[in-house]
Amino acid sequence: MKDSFSRRDVIKSIGFSSGAMLLNPLFSHAKPEQKIMIERTIPASGEKLPVIGLGSWQQFDVGQAASERAALTKVLQEMETLGGKLIDASPMYGRAEEVIGALTTELKNNDKFFFATKVWTTGKEQGIAQMNDSFRKMGRKKIELMQIHNLQDWQTHLKTLKDWKAQGKIKYIGITHYTDSAHARLEQIVKAKEVDFVQFNYSIRSRNAEKSLLNAAKDHGVAVIINEPFEQGALFRAVKGKELPAFAADYDIRSWAQYFLKYIVSHPAVTCAIPGTSDVKHVTDNLGAALGKLPDEAGRKKMIEWIEKA
């Protein structure tokens, strides 16, 4: 919960009025044309997804007590109400798959979301067993996106996923990683057109993906999911006590989270960014980054220049 703590510090440091922006007025104060979430098309199918989703690493790894799950229930309710779709999980994330499955079943909104999870093991049979376990935990007969986590035994699992996609058990196939050092390998796989989705790290300060990976995904028709959008909270710590620059208003940016997220999703190759949170105010704030204007190339450069001086 390191990210959430540092984010709360930033909210407190910039005063109540800025903190108040994290509530639903982000949506209610928007102009009619700004209340429609920005979506991107999945090249493999033409299906559209809102550009902001939800990650579950750490935040959804909780026990069975109602007190531990109450905040997460609110997050999922708010996400559905505001139009969010993609929820990303993994067997690596402890109880996250089980918690997401249980809560969305209780809320009866299990089929309202785009579920993305992963296979994270070695060997064909082990992979099949783990993925079947994910289906059970998440309460699904079909999962929208199954990804190979951190490229672990990816060639073995890719064969299984192609079979499962043909059978209709999954809709899309993806690969993931979270370090710059893996970008070259991801790019090779993307260019071979082996997958529908690629997930990797990218942020306003960590821009290695801009060298070629993002453009490769766009050019080869592969959807992009971005993890580590806040650099595990480091971006919030970097701007603690600082006011948003005046030009942020030109892009309907009302918070630092939206500043960081709008930079990411303004890249035309990005399909969806997945900030993780267990705080309902934060999920509202994050989803607000899918409203209004996005920075153009000149705006993106200004955003980088400002943050590098922060």
TrEMBL record:
Name recorded for this polypeptide: Aldo/keto reductase
CDD domains, alphabetized: AKR_PA4992-like
Domain NADP-dependent oxidoreductase: residue ranges: 52-297
Pfam families: Aldo_ket_red (PF00248)
PANTHER family for the chain: ALDEHYDE REDUCTASE, OXIDOREDUCTASE, ALDO/KETO REDUCTASE FAMILY PROTEIN
Family matches, as SUPFAM superfamilies: NAD(P)-linked oxidoreductase
TM region positions: none
